[in-house]
User: What shape does this take?
Amino acid sequence: MNIYDSQLWISDLDETIGSLPELNDLAGKTVMVTGCTGLICSTVVDILIRWNETHSGNVEKITILAAGKNKEKILSRFVPYSCKNWFKFIPYDACSASCGITDTMNVMENTPCDYIIHGANITDSKFYTERPVDTILTMIDGTRNLLEVAQAKKAKGFIYLSSMEVYGSMDCDC
Assistant: This one.
């Protein structure tokens, strides 16, 4: 079953959109979302998609830049919308040595970016426990590189978020 077949999910998205009139300010803007298949950011993308679907006519759509390392996973998660002209895949890997920033900037060369919602991170509690420095460096380097994208694109806003703590603490013999 596709999540977009769930009337409950669609109803929840509609209720969320109804409580966020600020979304109207994003009409005609471009929003990059990293970690877009994760817990929080997939919902953010769904809200933006649903806003686009429910605002037709002369209203400009929100361009969604779904950024991540696994193109197939992203396009599969958002399959009904992956062919829309306002939905674009952008390669981005927060865990790579260069944080994938070269590929990201090359693909985005002629693409504006008004806002960045950065939710890409390592969420594996075991990895975090075993390799905390690598995890923190991924957060720091990934964020710094995306801030450089924001600066280069003259973005109007940048948000960093993480759902790591919702998974709870991992019991370990550290």
Notes: The beta strands are 30-34, 63-68, 87-91, 115-118, 157-160. The first strand starts at residue 30 and ends at 34. The helical segments are 7-18, 39-54, 71-77, 101-107, 125-130, 132-152. The chain has a mean pLDDT of 85.
